[in-house]
Amino acid sequence: MKSFKICVLISIVMLFISGCASSKSEFALIDKSKMTNEALIIGSFSRNLGNNYIHKTSFDIVTLNHDFVKRVFDAAGETLSLANNPYSFENDFVYETSQGSIFSTMIPEGTYYITNYLAGKGSGGFIGNYEQKVSVKAGDIVYIGDIKFEPILRTHPLYDNKKNIVSTNCIISNQLDRDFNYFKNKYKIDSFKKENIKVLVEEKKFNLGAFQTNGSPFIIFVPTL
Question: Is residue 13 within a helix (H) or strand (E), and if so which, with residue range?
Fold first, then answer.
């Protein structure tokens, strides 16, 4: 048990120091040799425009027994203008109401939960353990949706021009029409067609609960990286 707690704490530390330089989980390419046993999971992370009040977004893929399989993440790098725009993401798209990036990862054939949706901020942030169940077969290309994080802000009690993030909503929606061309540009292969993509999007809006790295809610959900 002691060694498990140490691994969990190391995992938490690594999760947050990764925000010092912008980084993303590895973007999986379409590998025919791997896809004889695995499926390709694709989707996107997005955030509101304006000041970035969060520096990391992620979710976990776990088995039906809640054993950790993989974490997919998008982390920002710190900028020099800490007061006005403290975090800078490497965006694939910027629109009037959102900005963000696409992701892609491989998992073995099977049934999983997509869960532990996280918006990191400083030494804490917001997390939700809503579970979306997905079943994939070898060779599938599965789109699980756009995962958008919308911070809920409150004016600072002492400074009218300063806002604090007090909560975050997570919105899952089908944005394949928007995202497809970004994937097409990444893969650059003619066989990547929209009609070959299996859409498994459970459209949902839910609120994430606050946590600190020394608090129990987050420690419960964080596996060893």
Answer: helix 2-17
Q: What percent of the chain has pLDDT over 90?
A: 54
- Give φ, ψ of 36 to 5 degrees: -75, -20
Tell me what percent of the chain is helix, strand and coil, each rounded to the nearest 5.
20, 45, 35
Handedness of CA 196, 200, 204, 208 (dihedral sign): negative
CA distance 164 to 90: 24
Q: Give dist(CA 48, CA 94) in Å, integer.
A: 10
CA 192 to chain centre: 23
Sorted by sequence, the CB contacts under 8 Å of residue 186 that are 6+ apart come out as 27, 102, 104
Per the listing, tokens 């020099």 go with 80
Higher confidence at residue 6 or residue 128? 128
Mean per-residue pLDDT, 164-184: 94
Q: How do residues 107-160 score in pLDDT, each as one tens digit?
A: 999 999 999 999 988 778 899 989 999 999 999 999 999 999 998 887 766 666
C-alpha to C-alpha distance for 213 and 225, rounded to whole angstroms = 16
